[in-house]
Amino acid sequence: MFCEQGGNFDGSPDLVMLGDSHMQHWSAAAAAAMEESGGSWILVFHPGCRYGSDADRDEAECANFQDAAEEYVADLAPKMVLTTASKTVAAPDEYLRGPGEQETIVDHYAEAIQPFLDAGGQVIAMRDTPRYTYSIPECVDSNPSHLEACDGSAHEALAQINPVQEFLAQHDYGQQVVSLDMTGLLCPEGVCKAVIGNVSTYLDDSHLSKTFVLSAKRQFAEAFKKATGWQ
Question: Contact 124/228 with Cβ under 8 angstroms?
Answer without folding.
Answer: yes
